[in-house]
Amino acid sequence: MSNMTEKESYEGVEPLLEIEDLEVAFQSSTGMVPAVRKANLTIYPGQSVAIVGESGSGKSTTAHAIINLLPGTGKITGGSIKFQGEELTTKSRKAMERLRGKHIGLVPQDPMSNLNPVWKIGFQVREALKANNVVKGSQAHERVNQLLAEAGLEDTERVAKQYPHEFSGGMRQRALIAIGLAARPELLIADEPTSALDVTVQRRILDHLETLTKELGTAVLFITHDLGLAVERAEHLVVMHRGRIVESGPALQILQNPQHPYTQRLVAAAPSLTSARIMSAHKQGIEITDEELLGAGMGSTATETAVEVHNLTKTFPIRGKRGQTFKALDDVSFNLRKGTTLGVVGESGSGKSTAANIVLGLLEQDSGKVIFEGVDVATLNKRERFEMRRNLQVVFQNPYGSLDPMYSIYRAIEEPLRVHKIGSKKEREKRVADLLDMVALPRSAMRRYPNELSGGQRQRVAIARALALRPHVLVLDEAVSALDVLVQDQILHLLNDIQAEMKLSYLFITHDLAVVRQIADDVVVMQNGKVVETGETDAIFDNPRTEYTRNLIDSIPGRDIPLGAF
């Protein structure tokens, strides 16, 4: 579409999907709550469109309205959805069932809850073919294998006989793509199709999806909160905020020249784009950018170590295979310098979380040492280990799982102080109030419970609790990966400010290299339980020594997109 405008390239073409003034609302105890307000969207045959926005912006609700699969009490309360010229909002349930799958396919977000755990993968693909009357009888077997191969799965005969739990996340997502494209639909809705996957797996799957849909002439509607990914994969971009479409147009144009303040904030906060901005600044000879000040810490001046890890090994028995073991860590060594951030990166299964759990004393290594502030942790007695815990705290990925739903926010933050017998009741109250200030939460949050807070607010509570005992080292295990871009950006800035104020050292475990580019002083790259590369962040990004690291950096979505003047 190089020299043509978007409008010209689709001139005279009948739209595949036309949404006009769409209104969707959910029933609540106080009446109908609007979720989508007056949304307009057109998709042409073979076009790729992305809807971006944070949680609650209405992007998934819009997608589910198209196929009449709104969750819970959701209802279309106004507007029109036309597919191939036919009005969908007035169609019967039966007619919509015939349309779903056959003409509009869906790749849902969470493969584990969208694949039936008791059915073999091949059977689930066959069911999709049967439901849409695609092929019958003996041909179905061949067609299942063909679809699994198309989706990029190898050894399809064997794979078809496996259950979802025997698949990795990437393989499960491929199986869902096979099911979504089984009936060769004209439109495929991909709802956050790769948000739970490593960047390298994500890139392979999206490349594959792009090739497939181009060959089949399928139009794709991406739902994502990753702006880098949206611009890399879609021609047309739609930005949603609080149920409304605030900006819409050619993807690259919106990225390079965002008009709406909300879009401008999204562009400024996206880690993949920030990473690209840092890279291009370095190429122009600019030594340090505003973005990098986020990870400045004490930088290259710090020489004392907070944590040293020497030659750690850890093996686990393989379930169901007697006598067989799996080596999760193989001679792993790294140092965290005082007052700095060390990013430990790698794909799922690289051993990064195992290493973090050994540092935290939650797992025991087979061999090797962990030195904390100059002392070998293995030599500590029970009381000394309890003391060490004060100085070494953790923030996990999932604030739902790490906060007790029965504890008020006050009690959750106050608990470590009580366990370690710190201060009187009054002093503890003051400390909790100070901690809430520190993580930018209102003091009124004390009386609330985790289920009354958003994901980002919960993560702030988890950080406040981890800081309650004034630790020296904070282990952050995928602590921002479940958050929306804008919330993630706020939390990263918050962590940076707290680090500067409290002279903290961070061990930052993540699979997201774009975030590491922003926040880490040093990086350790792990693969299959081994350290494959280690060094200062700049050196690793500007000059990766291994193919594996280069591949991780190249897979950051949107990193090659020209960013214009913005």
| Approximate strand percentage | 15-25%
Largest sheet, if any? 6 strands, mixed
- State the separation between the terminal residues, measured CA to CA: 23 Å
Low-confidence parts lasting 5 or more residues at pLDDT below 50?
Answer: none
Strand order of the largest sheet: 6-7-8-3-9-10
How many helices? The count is 23
- How big is the Rg? 25 Å
Classify the helix fraction into a percent range. Answer: 25-40%
- Total beta strands: 20
Shape: globular
* Structural class estimated from helices and strands: alpha/beta
Q: Could you tell me the mean pLDDT?
A: 85
SSE layout:
Layout: H1 6-9, E1 17-28, E2 31-43, E3 48-52, H2 59-66, E4 74-83, E5 86-87, H3 93-99, E6 104-107, H4 111-114, H5 121-131, H6 137-150, H7 156-160, H8 169-180, E7 187-191, H9 199-216, E8 219-224, H10 227-233, E9 236-241, E10 244-250, H11 251-256, H12 261-269, H13 271-283, E11 305-317, E12 325-337, E13 341-345, H14 352-359, E14 367-372, E15 375-376, H15 382-391, E16 392-395, H16 399-402, H17 409-419, H18 425-438, H19 455-467, E17 473-477, H20 485-502, E18 505-510, H21 513-519, E19 522-527, E20 530-536, H22 537-542, H23 547-554
